[in-house]
Description:
Blueprint: H1 9-36, H2 40-65, H3 81-107, H4 116-136, H5 145-174, H6 179-206, H7 216-226, E1 229-239, E2 245-253, H8 261-276, E3 280-285, H9 290-293
Parallel strand pairs: 2-3
Antiparallel strand pairs: 1-2
Helix pairs in contact: 1-2, 1-4, 2-3, 2-5, 2-6, 3-6, 4-5, 5-6
Amino acid sequence: MSHNHHINHNEFNRKFKFGIVLNSIFIIVEIIFGLTYNSLALIADAGHNLSDVLGLMIAWIANYLILKKPTKNFTYGFKRTSILAAMLNALLLIFALGIILWEAIERIKSTEIVDGNIVIIVAGIGVIINGITARLFLEGKDQDLNIKGAYLHMLTDAIISAGVVISGLLIMLTDFYWLDSVISILIVIIIFNGTWKLFKESMILSIDGVPGNINYENVRKFLLDKFEIDSLHHLHIWALSTSETALTVHVIPNANSNSNYDKLIKDINEGLLFEFGINHTTIQLENLNCKKKC
């Protein structure tokens, strides 16, 4: 299976800007109507949307820094900031979810009246806005964890806003105002599941773990089966950023390579890029005496 790992970061810079502006406007609308009509579900959704905007801003900064050229002190450039951004994004969201959960539990026995019509209208707008924002990041979600985080958050928001619409409908039909708090708790549970996965993936990348979309043993087997290699060792795979993967390996060519080492290296580089999307490779060729010593 081939992998297309080209990301146009300039294009996504523009998408981040648009998403931030669009969602910031909606947050203001949700807070105003949430306070005016006493809807915790709307305020909870606004709180989450605020964390999303902060997350989009962090991801945008990291996306911008990826384009900066390497320096003498930062020889890989600033690519790893995208990994740190994904982790910070997840942590901010977990913190916001904790606040929302606390408020929902405190008010679950509340008898305060909530206007179901307003909840439905504002949350319905949220479905549209969050859906549009999620669509911005659809094409890059499989190549960049940073972009994937933005996509998952906005897609989740669209689904949750739909849940808030359901909350408004149920309140109108039943007058069970505690449903507003129950929906808020469900919002927290749904978002936390995706957020925890994002945090775990970014944590693995931050400590030079193998990216989740790459299987170490599959790479090893691919190198030994597809190329004229007698053996290999010191195989290391890690993430340079949320969209770039690096690999280093020591290989011992077999007799069939006919000393055409330049072609061997070229074939390995192209094979790793095509098969696994690994786009930053360093391959060291060694002789048979290095099998145990090097």
